[in-house]
What we know:
This protein has six helices and eight strands, in the order βαβββαβαβαβαβα. It is of the alpha/beta class. It has one domain (about 1-185): 3-Layer(aba) Sandwich (Rossmann fold), CATH 3.40.50. The strands form two sheets. The protein has a six-stranded parallel beta sheet, with helices on both faces. The chain has a two-stranded antiparallel ribbon with strand order 3-4. The chain is globular and about 40 Å long. The mean pLDDT is about 95.
Amino acid sequence: MGFHGYAEDAELQMERLRATAGNSGWLCVSIQALHRFYRGRTERVGASWMTGQDRLLAIADNIAYVKSCLDAVRTEWPECADLPGIFAGFSQGVAMAFRAAVHAASQGSGVIAVGGDIPPEINTQELTRVSKVLLIRGTTDDWYTQEKFATDQHRLRESGVPFRAQELTGGHEWSADVTAVAAEFLGS
């Protein structure tokens, strides 16, 4: 299940998921953020998971929304209902991927986190609900800094969550190299 970054949309994240999953038999679902807006002075629509204003209310709304999306997927594909999933987020979507794995999914879901950090409100005990994590950071990423990357690794170690941390050449992006590393993670 995918969560796009700020000003992106579900279609873009779905392209990333399909490229990552390939022909491996994974069911790919990409969720559009609730808060849509026109990008600049165009007709192109982007979306955001939330802003800092009314943050706790937005988090609760987003978690409820993701749960309803998961329920719809389980209804449509009952053969997948009891399987743990992988939540893949890019940038702002990383926080939602972790929130989904911790609050909306069954125990044992994994997270692919590209260019974003673990949200601060998720505590050590809650993180133990995640089965495994792939953290990816671009070496020149100004948003997901080396410091945040190190802090996330510390938090996962403290929670006892198995993880792989990978720095790739590049910036704040979901590149072909990211897709390759994420595909390898899915295969494991």
